[in-house]
Amino acid sequence: MDRLMHLALIMDGNGRWAQMRSLPRTAGHSEGAKAAVKVTLAASRRGIRYLTLFCFSTENWKRPKMEIDSIMGLFSEEFDTMLSEIMKEDIKVVHLGRRDRLPYPLLSKLDKAAEMTKDNKGMTLQLAIDYGGEDEIERCVRRAIQAGNKEISYNTLLSYVDNPAIPSPDYICRSSGEKRLSGFLLLQSSYAEIGFYDKLWPDWNESMIDAIIEDFNKRNRRFGGI
Ligand code: IPE
Ligand code: IPE
Ligand code: MG
Any idea which ligand is nearest the CA of 15? Predict the structure, then answer.
């Protein structure tokens, strides 16, 4: 049985969670941020080595400006409250995705957190913000060409992902019952286990990490073998 080393989560369903309560969508994002903190700490405490959270996609810029501003503001706020917990838990923070379109205050917070936590030895928390798998593949190809590679294999491309030190995910889970990847970790997901959970993201807590580990442990990964 393989151990669950890298868990990647598509945090979906904030809007529907709010809608069901006749609240603005932003209230869903705010509860979703709280769930992300609970889930992160639980993953670290259960011995997961890498946790990737899909926070904002390259396509999410299509949303109304007011919603985007509120989401970006939340990331910044949540970060301030979380940084001391992150340090206590010995978690290392890295950003995944485009840097050029992020609001400067958020980008500088991400950079500061990465610098502050770079020597931490616990779980690595990879925050996918303005992330798209198609976009990352284009970056990989560009970097591989710029570095002068003549032959570009799959493994060459993998070595040019945004964070090449992070292994591909073992298990990708999505909340809210939607059954698609929406561009998440396209290059890295070839042999990931996939799981879809009906619970909307703001309702996630520590117990979901236990359920995920239990579910993953039942999988039989064959990688093409028998
Ligand atoms: C996920 O929740 C959060 C982001 C994509 C930023 P949604 O906002 O997509 O929630 P639903 O899918 O509309 O319920
Ligand atoms: C995917 O959720 C992106 C994140 C969870 C950040 P979306 O809600 O944006 O995805 P689609 O549009 O339903 O595929
Ligand atoms: Mg959604």
Answer: 1
Expressed in angstroms and rounded, the spacing between residue 190 Cα and the centre of ligand 3 is 23
| Any ligand 2 atom below 6 A from CB of 55 | yes
Identify the pLDDT of residue 112: 94
Nearest atom in ligand 2 to 128's CA: 6
Residue of 2, 14, 60, 203 marked active site:
60
Q: Which fold has domain 6-217?
A: Undecaprenyl pyrophosphate synthetase (3.40.1180)
**pLDDT tens across 22-47, in order?**
999 999 999 999 999 999 999 999 99
Nearest residue (by CA) to ligand 1, atom 6, is 56
- Spatial neighbors of 195 by CB under 8 A, at least 6 apart, are 171, 172, 173, 174, 212, 215, 216
Structure tokens at 54: 């899909």
Q: Give the number of other Cβ atoms within 10 Å of residue 117's Cβ.
A: 20
CA pair distance 74, 80, nearest whole angstrom: 10
Tens digit of each residue's pLDDT (9 = 90 or more) over 80-118: 888 999 999 999 999 999 999 999 999 999 999 999 999
Domain locations along the chain:
6-217
Q: Which ligand is nearest to the CA of 201?
A: 1
Identify whether 149 is a catalytic site residue.
no
In this model, does residue 79 exceed pLDDT 90?
A: no
